[in-house]
Amino acid sequence: MLEILLYGAVTSAVYALLAIGFTLVFGVARVLNLAHGSFYALGAYLTFAFGTRLGLPLFAAGPCAVIAVAGFGVVVERVFVRPLRRSPLAVLLITLAVALLVEQGLFLVFGSEVRNVPAFVAANVSIAHVDLGGQRVLAFVVSLALLAALRTFLLGTRNGAAILAVAQDPEGAQSVGIDPNRTFSLVMALSAGLAAAAGVLVSPFLTVQPTMGLLPMIKAFSIVILGGLGSIPGTLLAALALGYSETAVAYLTSGSYTELVSLVAILLTLVLRPSGFLGARAAM
């Protein structure tokens, strides 16, 4: 039982980090970004490239990867998303195209072989006779720290207030001098950076390959549907529920069944409570 509690906490924290940016984008611009999983994959691959090919220390390679992917997120927003933002379907299609482009780019640059990212922390940590990998502990701690930093940013800074204002009333925010385009660029940078951070943190203990962005995209989408589109508290609650559900299923039955949990969660939510745990308007 303690193993489920500890490993579930790690999984939930990473899921929350992955999904919160997806929620932010929808909450501010009311569009779904299907390139979100690509940011996760780029975070893992750039950590590998900066660390093993450029020779940077891992604790420098990780932040550099996050910054680079955040910049890429801004480019995607300005070049591809902004001209089409009035059409959610067009944004859906263009971000899917970006995801496919990134995947093929990773194939061309790194090949189809699985890449191994060294652990930032190699030593194991023993908690009540349960051995937990040091990298998993680091992933948990850093995920919580980033989520806390995001909360502080949203509630305690002018830019954070601008994001909340645009999410609640875009026209009203614009009338008081807030630039929605600048705000959405900032949100895309945050979204891409958080997804990349999740990729950086889990890359040492998960498979790093060009197609690795698909499953996290499904997870993020499942969490957002379960929690309620645009709801940050709902996203955190859904990440907790999904992370512990998958961990319990893996320990009590088989790890091969864990991927069904998110799909079942989507189906049940759409049938029983389409608005999710907290609903679309509980977000900001």
Secondary structure layout:
Elements: H1 2-29, H2 36-53, H3 58-81, H4 88-110, E1 124-127, E2 130-133, H5 134-156, H6 158-168, H7 170-175, H8 180-202, H9 214-227, H10 232-252, H11 258-272
Antiparallel strand pairs: 1-2
Task: Name the overall outline.
Answer: globular
What is the radius of gyration computed over CA atoms, rounded to a whole number of angstroms? 18 Å
User: What composes the largest sheet?
Assistant: 2 strands, antiparallel
Number of strands: 2
The mean pLDDT is 89
Verbal overview:
The chain is mainly alpha-helical and 284 residues long. It has eleven helices and two strands, in the order ααααββααααααα. The protein has one domain. α9 (214-227) runs parallel beside α11.
Q: Summed up, what is this model?
A:
By secondary structure, the protein is mainly α. Helix content is 73%, strand content 3%. The chain contains 11 helices and 2 strands, in the order ααααββααααααα.
Question: Which terms would index this structure?
Answer:
284 residues; mainly alpha; two-stranded antiparallel ribbon; 2 strands
